[in-house]
Structure formats: C-alpha cells, structure tokens
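To close the section, here is one more complete example, presented without commentary so you can practise reading it yourself. The ligand is adenosine-5'-diphosphate.
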Amino acid sequence: MAKELKTIGVLTSGGDAPGMNAAIRAVVRTGIARGLKVKGIKKGYMGLLNEEIIDMEPRSVSEILQKGGTILGTARCMEFKTRDGQMKGVEICRKHGIDGIVVIGGDGSYRGAQALSRLGVNTIGLPGTIDLDIACTDYTIGFDTAVNTAMQAIDKVKDTSSSHERCSIIEVMGRNAGYIALWCGIANGAEDILLPEKYDFNEQNIINNIIANRKKGKTHHIIINAEGIGHSTSMARRIEAATGIETRATILGYMQRGGSPTCKDRYYASIMGAYAVDIMMQGKTNRVVGYRDGKFVDYDIEEALNMTKGIDSYQWEVAHLL
Ligand code: ADP
Ligand code: F6P
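Output:
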C-alpha cells in the first residue's frame, strides 16, 4: 500500500515525444488542484541523480501545450540501471520530500519506475513514445503527431518522385517497431512496406514488384522502410542497378519526433497526466496508464512489461490489398 502523498515529482525519460508537455502540464495542474506540491525533475533519471529538481507552479506550465519536445528535458541514464543508482535516487527523493513520481517514457523508463516503487517511492508510468510499441496500450503519447508529420513528408516526396518517374525509398522511425511504417504505408498508399516485424529481406520480391508496376504504367513506386531495417541508401543503389529505374532514398529522421503535437496527442496526454495523479492519490503505485478499448486504464508495471503486441494480421493484409 502506498503512503500518503504530499509532494510528487514528474520526469520525462527515454526518447522525447510530442505531447509530453501536455502530460507534464496536466500532472502539475492536477496535482496542485488536488492539494499536492509538484516538482519537475529535469533530464529523466539522470537529472534525479544530479538533483536537477525544480518547484512547479500552475504558471510554470503555461504556453507549453502546443510545444514539441519536453520542457523538462530527457536523457538516458545508465547509472540508474544499477542498484546503487536507484538507492541514490530514493535518497534524493527523500531529501526533496518527493513521495511519488510520474514517469513519462517507454518500457525502459518503466523499469526504472518499478525499481523506485520497490524502494518505497510511489510511481505511475505514462506511455511516452512516438513508436507506439508499448504493449499494454493502444495509444502512446507522440505517435499521432509523428505519424502525421511522416505522412505529410511522404506526400511531398511522392509528388517529386512521380514527376521524375522515380522509385523512392522513404525511411521512417522505428528501430524495433514498424507502426509508423505501417500507418504511413496505408495512409500514403505505398507500394511496399518494410517492417522489422515482417520483412523477409528478399529484395528480389521488391524488384519484381517495381518492374511489374512500371509495366502497368505506374509513374512512382514508394517503399516505406522502417529504421529497424535501415540501409535505405544502399538498398536504393541495388534496386536502381537491378531495375534500371532511378531510385532515391530519403531518411526522414528526427523531424518525426519534433513539432507541435496534434489535438489527439494534446488531449490524450492531458487526460493521462491527470489520471496518473488521481490514481496515485488513490494509493496506487507501480502502475502504468494505458488506453484500451476506448477507456483510460492502468496496469501493474510487471504485468504491462510482460504483455506483447505485434502487427495486426488483418491490418497487414489490408495494407497489401490496397
Ligand atoms: P524508453 O523509456 O523510451 O524505453 P530507454 O530504454 O532508453 O527508453 O530507457 C530510459 C531510461 O530508463 C534509461 O536510460 C535508464 O535510465 C532507465 N532504465 C532503463 N532500463 C532500466 C532498468 N532495467 N532499470 C532501471 N532503469 C532503467
Ligand atoms: O523515440 C523512439 C525512437 O525514435 C525510435 O524509433 C528510435 O529507435 C530511437 O527513438 C532513436 O532515438 P535516439 O537516436 O535518440 O537514441
């Protein structure tokens, strides 16, 4: 059972994601509205260990809803993976009177939250990643913005690719997960979609597809390639050599992770931030907030980390039909 809360902290950890600011704002304002003190912990667990901790007021989070990135900053911190690092984190929480922390990040960040919770600091995780690769939730903060940014960029590449009758390989983010690639593949009408979860590394199939489409009169051929497969530039060279069709690679990169969040990311992140504070006040700890079947829900961190999700086979089939 969690202890009574007086002061909570909020931190962002792992890769940043548009909408994290909306979540921070909601944690700060809900916490204060419920009578808590709220502290902002800068740069994830690294900032906790370095005591980069600031008092937050309702006005500290003014004008941040529409901003990409995270006003608290984020970092990766190897020291926090060690028992000594975690104990030091707990000591620092005690020193600053922090009874609980809302951790906004991905699976790795939840492991840190789990460690803190076991050592007596209440923790609630929020799913913050553009990759959508957190199994316990259908929604992650930042995915909607990132996928819309990528979709718009791909539309632009497609325009010039068609004009020049070229083949284009467009690499989108997703080191371990192909959700951005799948969604863009369907939303941009790509001819081929390469996902880490599905790709068989048979380039000859792609080459045959390009040649067949060209014979049918298609002026473009868009291949969406997920970062996890990568090597888009060398793939383009090989495809051009095999097909005789000019082939260019475009790597969208970090532009997908920045920018003003969409309405959906602002809305869901705001509700999740408030929800995290409210369940922590009910005495919950070691939980992750998710969105499933139309509802905001929460799971034990261990249970959440043991869940798996993959590419939906029906959606993958439809991607090919279209
Ligand atoms: P994400 O949260 O997006 O999955 P990472 O996997 O990089 O990103 O994790 C973010 C941070 O969470 C790490 O830099 C580290 O500080 C902390 N972390 C990751 N794994 C663990 C772990 N097993 N135990 C404690 N802290 C961890
Ligand atoms: O935020 C998710 C993500 O963009 C992944 O797609 C990618 O693998 C990773 O972050 C790269 O982040 P960084 O270059 O900051 O380590």
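Once you have examined the tokens, check your reading against these statements. The chain is about 40% helix and 20% strand. The longest strand covers residues 7-12.
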